[in-house]
Structure formats: structure tokens, C-alpha cells
Amino acid sequence: MKREFLINVVLVIGLNVLVKVFFIFGIDRGVQNLVGPAAYGAYFAILNLAYLFQIINDFGIQNFNNKHIAQHRQLLPKYLPNILVFKAILGIIFMMIFLFFGWVLGYWALSKSVLIAIGLNQILVALIYYLRSNVSALGFYRLDSVFSVLDKFLMIIIIGTLLWTPSFRTNFTMEWFAWGQFISLFLTTLIGLFFLYRKVKIPRIRLNLPFLLVIIKESGPYALLGLLMAIYSRIDSVMLSQLVSEHETGIYASAFRLMDAGTMVGLLISAFLLPMFVRQIKMREPTEDLAQLVIKMMWVVGVTAAIPVIIFREPIMKMLYTEGDAYSANVLGLLMLALLALMWSSVNGVLLLAAGAIRQLNKMYFWAVLLNLGLNAFIIPTHGAVGAAFVAAITQWFVTLYQYRLLAQSSLYRPSGRAIGQILVFPILSGLISYGLFALSSNWLLLFIGSIAITLILAVVLGLFSPQGLIKLLKNR
Asked: How many domains does the chain have?
């Protein structure tokens, strides 16, 4: 199980470094630098408004499907056609609610074309995630890795052409950006449907109301889970837009982009982890070995990505953005603290979900929502993007520590004292080394790269990561 997981992790990270990172920093960042923080901030606020209602598109179907199909693959031909009909109905409901709130908050008047495009994009995103959950649940992990980057690869071609061709660049708008994504997502959806149609004998698609009612009943807790997660993780940019300005939201988006790039690895690995943990629990196999392996791996990735960026945050923001400054750098630093918690949380949450701890997770996220909304309402009006980033870090660490408490009370994963010591010492030493290099005031980019390299070496020295063990597992696959 560990060997299979590591093989797919290498493939996922490799593909995403090549494609998604290029999209985030080459396309998405390029668009913001071209149109400015205010225009991009409005787009970012609308996008996050869509995320708040995204659970309507999914209704917990992805988590439900990933868990049940992993346990009973023979159910896929029965589930797939009915869920496709259900998702079409959910898509219509989502679009009506999203457009209504977009109109109430003034985004319809700001840009109805962008609003409509983002709504359609989110419907397709939810459908793609569902199709991918079937692919991974069937055991096609490597193919799922390809699907995970296909939409971004198409966006690079389509939007990149518009962004980098001089005759198009001078007239580039956020409408082009939003509709370019729609075309890419639509093509990816067609490819995913074609693959599943060839692999699974699907009966005629029809509306089976009793079956849909069963899905609604069983998916309800998953839907609540998704709703609460969306609120505490996405409401900040909408509140920034409404309480301060689109320009402030754009500043937040510029820093959030780097955190998003970091969390990408955790989210993709989580998609692999859920069916693996589900099968281990079903077969009554111990989960501690795989959990410890992945938690250490994610902590190494998180610390390596976050700590050097926190230390070198100001020159990084000035290099990446035409309007980068010390203020946006402080936003980035706080969001990197949130990233550290997210990397750890991504494993904890999946393990608890696989064990069926939905009630405990929903209770935890409910408290996280109250904490996030209360702090944001108090801090954002006076501290803007920096305040939102501070609240994001506080909320995410609350979630991570709460999850750790739940795991410690179970038999799923109980880290040893040595493992806890490694986890605590690693970021402290990385921070001291990175700050020492930063203080040299020489070529900051070389020093930044050096701090990343030294942090990785430090992970090996502390025993958090073993290249020899990884190579051995890959050779013996």
C-alpha cells in the first residue's frame, strides 16, 4: 500500500509541477499583473462566492462516491447514470442561487458575463471531480493524475494564446479569462465521460427518484461538511470585497495564489489517500504506517514551501507582482502560516473521513466557521487583507489541532514522542537557517533557493524523509 501510494505521489507531483504551477504563476499571475489588482480582485471575490455555494453542485457526492465505490466497485454502473442526472438538477439549482446572490451583492452589475462564466465553470469543476473520483476509486490512480492537470493544460494553451499574443493582449479582459476556462473545463468533462463510458457498462441514463432520495439522505452529512469547509476557507475574500474594496481583495488574491500553489499537493494526495484508507479500515489493516509516512511527507513539503517564503516574502512579492510591496508581503507571510496547518490537516481530515467520523468533523468545522466569521467581521474593516490572512492562519491551526485531538483519541494514528519532536524542531531550525541566509543581504534569490535546499537536507537529517527508503519502494513496485 505504501509503495503504491508513493509511486502515484511522484507522478502527481511531477505533473502538477509542470502544469498547474505553470498555470498559477504563468497564466493566473500574468492576468492579474495585466488587468490590475482591482479588476482581478472583483473576479476573485465572485469566484469565492461561487465556492460558498459549490456544495450544491456536489452535495457530498464526491466523498460519498469515493468511499462507497472504493468498497464496492460493482455499484458504479448503477450509481453513475443516476448521479449524472442528479448533478444536472443540482447544477440548475446552484446557478439560480449563485446568480441571485451575485445580483444582491452587486456583482451582476459589475460583470454579468464573468458571473455567468464562473457559475458554469463551477458546475463543470464539480462534475470533473466526480468523474475523477470514479477513476481513482476504480484503481486508475495514474490516469487520475493525468485528469488532474488536463483542464489546466488546456487553459495554458487557450488563455496563454490570448495573454501572450500582442494583438490579443492589448484587449485582454477578465471575461476572456473566465470563458477561456469554461472551454477548457468543458473539453476535460467530455474526455472524462468518454473514458468512463468505455470502461463501465452504463445502463440508460434516467431519473430514478427513490435512488436519488437515498443519495440525498446518505450524502447529507458530507454536504454539510463541504458547506462548512467552504465558508471558513472562502468567505474572507467576499467579506474583503464587501467591507473594504476590490483592490484590497486583489492584494489578498496575489498572496493567496502562492498558498494555493502549496496546498495543491496536499489536495491531490488526499484524493489518493481516501480510497486507500477506506480499504485498510474495511480490511481491518492498521492505518498508522501509511498515516505516519504521509504526515511526515506533507510536513516536509509544507515547511519547505512555507518557512523560506515567510523569511523572503517581501522580495518574492516584489518580483512576482508589479504592485508587490511590504504590505502584500505581510499578507503572504500570514497565509504561509496557514499553509503549514493545511498540509498537516489534509492528511488528518482524510483519515477521519475514511473512518466515518462525519459527526465529529462537522462539529469541528461548525466551530471553525463561528471563529472565522467572528474574527473577520471584527478585524477586516480595520486591517484589510492582513487581517483576513491573520484570521485564516488562526482558523486553520484551530482545525488542525482539533483534528489531531480526535486522532489521538482513536486508534487510527498515535504519533510517538520522537515523531512529535521531529515535527516541532524541523520548522524552528528551518526558520533559523533561512533567516541567517536572508541576513546576508546578498543575492536574495540564490539565498532563497539555498534555504529550500538546506531545509530539505535538514528533513533527511532529522529522519522526516528518507530518499533511500523512497527509492527502494519505487524499485520494488
From this structure: 1
